[in-house]
Specification:
homodimer; about 350 residues; six-stranded mixed sheet; about 25% strand
């Protein structure tokens, strides 16, 4: 059996099973662990606040292609995808480690540009880049680990397991911008000057750190960031919480430029595009009303949580008919799309 | 200018310079940082103990070759190289994140074997594997981050900057075993059943965690682990502390099997072999005498620290003549040896 047969999530389940079986509950380290593999970040009890940690990787030809992403953007984005996971816990980033695989004929200036992009976001988000590694490699890859902590002393955070039947489902910002931005960068659509917002969504995603902290402060307890695609990430939430979800197609927040530039694709972009790094969360109607008044970015209720049944995620169009998605999200070992 | 022109350490200096320039001393995260990039681990103040973090990477064809390393050994070793850095601070490992780049046609069983090897060492060392990432990639790479903490409440640790003139220089265990083991695995020497110790030195290095903690407890303040090779790593210590060193060739602890199997190469193996993951440290003669009585593994004094002069490291043979090394250690972007 090969990885392409079981897919990324099949492999993760097997690994998580091995770790779980092996976990020594007497161990001093394990005793403090609240969430191991399975949420956006690992969570353990610190002395004064819960601690978060996350690693994420960008591989040339899989996650990025330097033909349509600058080294500086790559630096920014490599940190952003991790900070987005800290945001999806409602946490504060603290420390980052940066591991680079680079061919020996890489231009030194390119590596410094990479670091300039990364350090710009690190500075903005109060993340101290405290260490790293450089290694020769035939392909370029970037692996960033971020350590963060709960922003509030009570230690609350956004978990995948806290979704409740009756909750409303909401997202921050726009859906599908990043994949639309990638199409622009790949030259798969004409440009008219209006597409800068899309290009930036793909190249310089802004992790929703302030929004994540606001959510926790307002009482939200369940959330995830959208990296694989709305349907895929909503599926992770539902699976972890043993609930189902109904999503209304006409509620999806799609930017007018995306609708106009990709009239036949924007629904699929919004449902399965991925890489938007928006927050997807659920909360009671009361909390949701409160949030709509206080959040500085767009917040859109896109559906509701229902008790467990099959299918786990149902997408309904305006007339209440079920919409079938052509693809639910990215799977590392099953998808063979070239970026 | 390309990476191969300035080498791994030239690049690291440039990156460290950028980070230093960018560092915001007002920042809440940076305020707690004691050591950024430049020591074996990053160090920051935790609430009750100093915290350590380290990332290290294993790349197929650069660090390992599956023709002479099993997946299970690769798992063990990928964690061991990081734990060795925690050991070289005298710390306790706590949490690990494991990031894997894998081709889609990788056998699932191989990935599980990898994890079995890694989890065996994690269990032995009380390291909780709390998260990770899997990504498709055309080559196999493994990037492990470990977070640890100071074992003692006073927060002391082994730093590269604390070497003092007059200190003695010592190493744990044997030097050159790992590179000799690699030669055995590559079939570059005949086997006679005696070489298992060498093979294991390369495939299953044992991080010197207990020894690192003992050193701190006994008052040692300067140390590093030998990953790049004795001369290279001693050079890092001397550079960080602005001192020079004299090493006596006839004191180097070389295993009898290595001497016998590689009579013409064992000195170079010991001086520049790398991957031994022994601790290299300096201490006053008093502390050294105390350690020799209490340490459970072999400890060998190999030289002494002298005040700064050129050359930084002088190697003297039995008759007091200077020995010239053919190669000081591994450089990722300059060396082109195939593993």
């Amino acid at each position: 059996m090969k990885l392409q047969d079981i897919g990324q999530f099949g492999l993760i389940d097997l690994i998580a099973g091995l770790i779980e079986k092996d976990r020594d509950i007497q161990s001093e380290s394990w005793r403090n662990v609240i969430e191991g593999a399975g949420d956006d970040c690992a969570v353990w009890k610190g002395n004064t606040a819960n601690q978060f940690a996350k690693v994420d990787c960008q591989v040339e030809g899989v996650h990025f292609n330097l033909a349509n992403l600058s080294w500086e953007d790559l630096g920014w984005k490599s940190l952003a995808v991790n900070l987005s996971d800290i945001a999806s816990m409602g946490g504060l980033p603290r420390y980052a480690l940066v591991s680079l695989g680079l061919p020996p004929d890489t231009e030194v200036q390119n590596v410094l540009s990479f670091y300039r992009g990364l350090l710009r976001l690190a500075g903005q988000s109060d993340t101290a880049v405290v260490g790293g590694n450089v290694s020769s490699s035939s392909i370029i890859f970037v692996d960033v680990s971020v350590i963060g902590q709960a922003a509030n002393p009570d230690g609350h955070y956004l978990s995948r397991k806290e979704v409740r039947t009756g909750d409303l489902i909401a997202v921050t910002g726009w859906l599908g911008n990043a994949v639309a931005g990638l199409r622009v960068l790949q030259g798969k659509t004409t440009t008219d000057g209006e597409e800068e917002i899309l290009r930036r969504s793909f190249s310089r995603p802004e992790p929703r750190l302030a929004e994540g902290r606001l959510l926790v402060e307002k009482g939200v307890r369940a959330g995830i960031d959208i990296s694989d695609g709305l349907i895929s990430d909503l599926g992770h939430l539902c699976k972890a919480s043993s609930v189902s979800a109904v999503v209304y197609l006409d509620k999806l927040p799609v930017h007018s430029v995306v609708k106009r530039r990709f009239p036949e694709k924007y629904i699929d972009f919004a449902l399965s595009g991925g890489e938007d790094y928006q927050l997807l969360f659920t909360a009671t109607p009361d909390i949701m009303r409160d949030l709509e008044k206080t959040c500085s970015c767009p917040l859109t209720v896109i559906g509701e949580v229902v008790s467990r049944r099959e299918p786990v995620i149902q997408i309904l169009d305006e007339s209440g008919r079920e919409y079938r998605v052509s693809r639910t999200g990215w799977d590392h070992f099953k998808n063979t799309d070239k970026i």
